[in-house]
Specification:
There is one protein chain. This protein is an alpha+beta fold. About 45% of the residues lie in helices and about 20% in strands. The N terminus and C terminus are likely disordered.
Length: about 525
């Protein structure tokens, strides 16, 4: 008994020691990994801020270089019209003006009345042709604008103003935002803007500084010790719980690892086989007529317990196990079955389906589309395949070939999430698209003031010049519809019209809409074509 008790006590002490060592080790590794991840996130956030300001500055420089090619620029109405056209050619510039040799603003694209003395230093003959500076803004919370200056001739200079509100960006992830300090500076000038932390958190533990490769911009970012405590709280509690019950865990480890557990791939494949992953359809509305002109197909997972899982929860699982092809083909086949009975051949009805960015570098998606839709009433001309602007496309040359094959079938390509993506408008110049879908963030910006209106109008104008269609996503208010119609947008989707509906419900909605259309177009009784009543009328 005593020996057994001592043995049990020894095991208890050993388990406690092992638990303590494991807990301490895991706490150390967790903190090291957290610091590493935070530093990587800060670096990415700084690069995003630099990418935005670089893009805006380069756009302004290019615009001014084009203007400078015209000889004898002055303040005539013709030249001011050129300034106005140049300012509207990019969403980053709000005004362009002409500055005299003394540094006084003599006119802008808005007129000759906008004079301002001492806007720039007096011209120096040995100065650079292109200079950057920050404007002096009044008001405590005002964000300075960037002044991009281009020498024209005889000391006269063109100046383009990039509003600070368009540049100010806080890409730091939410759980770090309360403790982060970020500052964007124009090297050689004062700081442009500072993002202060919401809470002070003691000693600074991670500090990074990133500079633009070609332009004089620098971003400094840091977080305090409190950030580590905040982002690791749940993990620390979990590790402590593991330490407290390590003895029980060690006893149960054999059973835990010996029993069978379904993999994530099994779960997704079973859901597909059981028909639990189904298409939902959100109507695309013609803003002028109110008619349903198509739909976007979205995947949902209807679990046996009645819960509905959004794609944001199960699509990453499918991606991890390389099952996106199976999911895509399943959703396309189910969409065919649902829409074939309600879509008449030759009808102008668009069905938008989402593709993954990695499918753009694998031409098997082309054969999948052909196999699914070759016998469907949904002809290839009815199809729109959406590529998200949020995820960068690798191997762009291969992607361009795959996209060309899809378009050769007769389908259209849409660039989705425009306005919230990683590349902005870069994809418009890299791949051939037929439609851009304005992200909800942009649509919400319509009600956010002049800058939001100008940004959306700029994108729409660019799409018009490139002969690209526009669909607005996330429309939720009638005011947004009014603004979009004024801007020339005729197609939209959003909760103002309908949320994503189960496929069967959407098809029933289509049937009801078609019956109502037929009733409206049907002549009153007694006035059928050729009747006596019609002749009398």
């Amino acid at each position: 008994m005593i020996r057994n008790a001592r043995k049990m006590a020894g095991y208890t002490l050993l388990a406690a020691a092992v638990a303590g060592m494991l807990t301490t080790g895991m706490q150390y590794v967790m903190r090291w990994q957290a610091e590493k991840d935070i530093k990587a996130d800060l670096t990415i956030s700084a690069d995003l801020m630099l990418e935005r300001v670089d893009k805006a500055t380069e756009a302004a420089i290019n615009v001014l270089n084009e203007l400078a090619k015209s000889p004898g620029l002055s303040c005539t109405s013709d030249h001011r019209y050129r300034y106005s056209e140049a300012a509207r050619s990019t969403a980053w510039i709000d005004t362009i003006g002409l500055v005299d040799r003394a540094g006084n603003l003599v006119c802008t694209d808005l007129g000759q009345s906008a004079r301002q003395t001492g806007l720039l230093p007096a011209y120096q003959s040995n100065g650079r042709d292109i200079t950057l500076s920050l404007s002096a803004e009044s008001g405590k919370d005002a964000i300075p604008s960037l002044l991009v200056v281009r020498h024209v001739a005889s000391g006269r200079r063109l100046v383009a103003r990039v509003p600070g509100e368009l540049i100010r960006l806080d890409p730091v992830r939410n759980d770090l935002r309360r403790y982060r300090y970020a500052m964007l500076s124009l090297i050689g000038d004062s700081h442009w803007f500072i993002l202060e932390p919401e809470e002070s958190g003691g000693e600074i533990i991670d500090r990074i500084s990133e500079s633009s490769e070609f332009l004089p911009f620098e971003v400094q970012m840091s977080v305090s010790e409190a950030a580590i405590a905040a982002v690791t709280q749940d993990k620390r509690d979990f590790i402590n719980l593991i330490g407290a019950f390590i003895g029980l865990i060690l006893m149960g480890i054999g059973w835990h690892f010996g029993r069978y557990r379904a993999t994530g791939a099994d779960i997704i494949l079973d859901a597909l086989e059981n028909g639990e992953i189904v298409p939902y359809m959100q109507p695309i509305i013609h803003l002028d007529t109110g008619a349903i002109m198509g739909c976007e197909v979205l995947a949902r997972w209807n679990k046996p317990d009645g819960s509905v899982v959004s794609p944001g929860e199960f699509i990453p699982l499918a991606q991890n196990y390389r099952l996106t092809r199976e999911v895509t083909c399943h959703i396309m086949r189910q969409s065919c079955k649902l829409l074939d009975p309600v879509v008449m051949e030759g009808q102008i009805f668009k069905v938008a389906l989402n593709l993954f960015s990695h499918q753009m570098i694998d031409d098997s998606i082309v054969s999948d589309i052909e196999d699914v839709f070759k016998d469907s009433k949904l002809g290839f001309s009815n199809l729109i395949f959406e590529i998200s602007d949020r995820v960068p496309i690798q191997q762009m040359d291969v992607a361009i070939d795959v996209i060309s094959q899809i378009r050769a079938l007769g389908a259209e390509i849409a660039l989705d999430d425009v306005g919230s993506g990683h590349s902005g408008l870069y994809n418009l110049t890299s791949i051939s698209v037929d439609i851009v879908k304005l992200d909800k963030l942009l649509i919400d910006a319509l009600e956010g003031g002049f800058a939001g209106l100008e940004l959306v109008q700029g994108l729409i104008s660019l799409a018009e010049r490139l002969n690209i269609g526009v669909i607005a996503e996330g429309v939720e208010t009638e005011d947004q519809v009014i603004q979009l119609r004024k801007m020339g947008v005729s197609a939209a989707q959003g909760y103002l019209f309908a949320p994503p509906l189960p496929g069967a419900s959407f098809c029933e909605l289509m049937k009801v809409a078609r019956r109502r259309k037929d009733e409206v177009s049907k002549p009153p009784e007694g006035l059928e074509p050729g009747s006596d009543a019609e002749k009398a009328a």
